[in-house]
């Protein structure tokens, strides 16, 4: 009987429902654990914000800048189609012509006066007024047609400047003429304060005599503005624009 009583008591104990037992105490997270959790959530939020900012800087600004450049470029070509213009009419507020650099970019680049952020942010290239004034090829004078454009964001027209090699063509298109240059020297990195690269005679490129030069400048490395990347070209020939605006063979 003792054995039977013990067995019965044991079975009753095993059959006791869980709801009848006192609830287990939950341990509250410590202060360190809570701090780590909050910090992690802040990092995730910061990462999302940073990601949105990068997307804005590298994508949306390109979209906006390309639209602005296209509109301004259309105005320039509309002005050209309206017939002869007077002296100085080339230097308009909308742009003076178009740069074509097949090895760097397939589309044309509108060229405007000045290199301030306000101008370059419209997805164009600008010719220098300061600290060294550029010499426009349309003047017929010897000098350096020095230009700048963004390498990332805001159209990023000079993003692939590193693809240019010696001998590659750089063509500047105006209403009446095509100016065909050939790359002859490249400086992958120099100080952003090195204004000598813009000189009328760019001696750092190896030239010692006055000539008809073109200089392309932009920031480097990509996505930074610590240094400047420089490409020099020399005028090879000038072609008149025909009625069909047939591009030179370098752009064919």
Write a short abstract of this structure:
The protein has helices at residues 2-14, 31-81, 117-120; strands at residues 97-100, 109-113, 125-127, 143-148, 169-173, 177-191, 212-220, 227-240. The chain is α+β, with helices and mostly antiparallel strands and 252 residues long. One of its GO terms (molecular function) is hydrolase activity.
Give a written overview of the molecule.
Helix 3 (117-120) links the parallel strand 2 and strand 3 (125-127). Helices cover 27% and strands 24% of the residues. The longest helix has 51 residues, at 31-81. With 252 residues, it is α+β, with helices and mostly antiparallel strands. The chain has an 8-stranded mixed beta barrel. It has a domain at 58-81 and 94-240: Sortase (Sortase, Chain: A, Beta Barrel). Residues 1-18 have low confidence and may be disordered. The protein contains 3 helices and 8 strands.
Observed structural traits:
8-stranded mixed β-barrel, 252 residues, alpha+beta, disordered N terminus, single chain, Sortase, Chain: A
């Amino acid at each position: 009987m003792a054995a039977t009583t013990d067995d019965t008591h044991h079975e009753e104990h095993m059959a006791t429902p869980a709801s009848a037992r006192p609830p287990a105490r939950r341990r509250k997270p410590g202060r360190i654990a809570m701090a780590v959790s909050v910090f992690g959530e802040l990092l995730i939020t910061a990462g999302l914000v940073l990601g949105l900012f990068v997307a804005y800087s590298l994508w949306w600004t390109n979209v906006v800048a390309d639209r602005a450049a296209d509109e301004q470029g259309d105005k320039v070509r509309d002005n050209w189609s309206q017939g002869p213009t007077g002296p100085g009419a080339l230097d308009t507020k909308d742009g003076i012509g178009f740069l074509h650099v097949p090895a760097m970019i397939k589309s044309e680049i509108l060229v405007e006066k000045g290199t301030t952020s306000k101008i370059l942010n419209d997805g164009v290239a600008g010719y220098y007024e300061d600290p060294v004034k550029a010499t426009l090829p349309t003047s017929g004078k010897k000098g350096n047609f020095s230009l700048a454009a963004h390498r990332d964001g805001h159209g990023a027209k000079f993003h692939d400047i590193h693809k240019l090699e010696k001998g590659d063509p750089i063509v500047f298109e105006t209403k009446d003429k095509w100016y065909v240059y050939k790359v002859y020297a490249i400086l992958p990195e120099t100080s952003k304060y090195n204004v000598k690269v813009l000189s009328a005679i760019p001696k750092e490129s190896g030239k010692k005599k006055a000539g008809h030069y073109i200089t392309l400048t932009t920031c480097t490395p990509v996505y930074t503005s610590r240094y400047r990347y420089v490409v020099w070209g020399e005028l090879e020939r000038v072609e008149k624009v025909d009625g069909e605006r047939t591009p030179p063979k370098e752009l064919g």
